[in-house]
Amino acid sequence: MDLGEVRRLAEEAGRVDVLVNNVGGSRYGPTADLDGPGFDALFVGNVRSAYFLVAALAPAMAVRGRGSIINMGSMAGTIGLAGAAAYGATKAAMASMARSWAAEFSPRGFGSTPSPLGRCTASRSSYVDRRGPRRRRRPHRHLAPCRGSK
Questions:
Q1: C-alpha neighbours within 13 Å on the C-beta side of residue 51
Q2: At residue 147, does pLDDT exceed 50?
Q3: Active-site annotation, residues
Q4: How do residues 70-118 score in pLDDT, each as one tens digit?
Q5: pTM for the full model?
Q6: Are 146 and 127 in contact (CB under 8 A)?
Q7: Domains and CATH numbers, the chain
Q8: In the prediction, which pLDDT does 112 show?
Q9: What angle do CA 90, 91, 94 make, to 5 degrees?
Q10: DSSP one-letter code for 44
């Protein structure tokens, strides 16, 4: 990831009122099977990219005294999932950065919000399964409506 490209992107975008950090990837499998480059790629794509985008765009939001940074999370960042140690660590880092950005930027009139935890697949269902991944996505008592779902 080239930081010069991030700065150019911020300049080309102009005024940004809402930043949604939703890019990234995942790799699942045994811990011993993830090599150094794969581990680094997860952190570059899921953590470093969001950090430097916020660093490039938040100062202008602070000058205007308004804006919003929304950080997409995952339940993998709060619960242990077999085969998802590195991915979960990236999502835990995102949640931590979102809380830190909220503390840093809210006195300046704008904030950072972590996304709700859980799976929201509105095209198939409007429910979050609280039991974990790969479960039924039908409305039962262990499911809660997704925010913004109809």
A1: 17
A2: no
A3: 87, 91
A4: 888 888 888 888 999 999 999 999 999 998 998 888 888 777 766 655 5
A5: 0.72
A6: yes
A7: 3-117 (3.40.50.720), 119-150 (no CATH)
A8: 72
A9: 90
A10: I
